[in-house]
Amino acid sequence: MMCMEASSPGSRGLGWLVEQLHLQDGVLSESVVRNLLLEANLPSSELAPYIEHREESYARRCVARNEHFELLVLTWAPTQYGVAHDHSGSLCGLKVVDGRLTETLFADGPDGRVRLTSETSHGPGDILTDPGTVVHALANASADEPLITVHVYSPPLPEVRRYAVTEEDPPEMFLRPPAPEAQTVAIIGGGFTGTMVLANLIRQAASASRPMHFVLIDRQPAPGDGVAYRAVDGRHVLNVPAGRMSAWPDLPEDFLHYAQSKNPAIGAHDFLPRKMYGEYVRECLFKLARSAGRHLSASIVHDEAKQLQRASSSGWKIDTAGARTLPADVVVLAVGHRPPKDPLIHRWTGPRTRFIADPWASLALSLIRPDEPVLLMGSGLTAMDVVLTLQRSHRTAPLLAISRRGLLPSAHLRAPKPAIELPKNVAALLHAEEPLMTRELLHEVRCSVQSAIAQGFAWQQVIDSLRPAISHLWTRLDSRERARFLRHARSFWETHRHRMAPEVADTIQQMRLEKKLEVMAGTLLRAEADDHGIDVSFSCRGGSSTRKVRVAWVINCTGPDAHSRHATHSFLGPLLQDGTLVGDELGLGLWTDEGGRTINIHGETHEDLLVAGTLRKATLWESTAVPELRQQAQTSAQIALATLASTLPRSTCPPPGSAVS
Does 269 show up as a binding residue in the annotation? Predict the structure, then answer.
């Protein structure tokens, strides 16, 4: 950021600043924002309605907002601070009103992490501007004085890009340029799956001797976080106990040991913060990178893949939004879910400034006041995360969650129990000669649950017993039966299969008892918005009645959108259209073989184009949770290295078995 000298007092206050911002046409320039903040006289007494002290974090209160800008007042209690971040290209200008602001600047490193470069202090009247690319962290370093700052963002900033900070030097493999003869594996997607593919490549290639180069491409700057583990809210915990969350198939207690190294009191059955898990995944990668041999090099590219096409000779060429062209002998697609579809896009009238399209946009959620009613579109795990974020001890306005069936996720057992043996009646379906029907599958699962409960088991143990067989059962359903499952049974399956931590379920239940949360089954019909709120109409399930509610915000928690030739990640669209890749007719993902090799329109596999992660739902159905993804990451690395070995000239091929350890 650029620091400006303090402005002299004047009569141009907060109202004048809001008026001037509204008079600007389009996205604001840095000079306009700087000059307006210089001219504005903003005493803390005038900002009093927007000053809010919170114990858990600094507070953000919105003064004015439209599609081109937002004006906020931030209140920092003593010692409160923010994380290292940039503004994803949104211009930022801020003015210190009271207290002293500490700004820490960071430099990006070749290993995808940032390191501190400088720290400066700013007092009342100082102005800082940032075009949206500076990596910094802000803090109130005072032990006893609050800090008040005024911020302008243009366009509005729903979320920042958070960086992983370290003090250690980058591992040598990230500083080492690739050897001229090195073969390259590129991984598109840097969440859990992509990061663990890279970690597995390093681990398995340790005993090889030929030079190899690995590239991880992701727009988000912190490797391993993805959407799931980017959460900074400590109330967002893992949906699986710590003892079952290892990132390695062959090291089942690895995450538990990592967590216990931070806090020895942690037990195998504890549900830990997701933020900790993102840090663990990064440590899995960098622990291996620190000891990687000199034949290996790697780079982490903070960019977005925009085009993927065959190279003229062999392999692939990846073009990025940042005008890079990256060659690769093998590509692993490890991209995450698509953003949610907007069910109201054609049924919404008026401004959309109070519609939050991304339920993970924590900055946008932080603008919602406790006295503002909110409608959540959806009632699954994502919606429950949003409820936890909005739930504060002083919340007075209700939250309303609406979904087609009005089902909430079930809870894990308080005292976890192991999965039982796969019920014999379900096991028989795996090898039956007749085609499997959805109705038959559901009937046998219900019978298994009833039988298990009669024998003293919990239904959760039955559902967990199905997990190893789910992919096989899914392949036995034809396309019509899969569509029937998605239409009639998906919501019931997901609420029982993907469960809440017991303490989260307790919070949700208490909020419902206190009338702070209402869950309804219904269909949204239309939304009519003005500058102060939204009138939402919906029909209630099981009847003809229509209900209208007035809310201050609408948040889209409907879950990821489908994949198709016309609605998918931009670099996949052309490959689907020309038949290089084939997506399933239900929009779940891409067709692959059992190892994750992609399949073209002629049914031929691509040995050098692999898929790991959510795009494999088309083939496997269960392809979103760590137990499945860690195995896919390991398998993808094995196949990628075997493919590299098979393309070497015979004279340079390593001995059998040396390519993959």
Answer: no
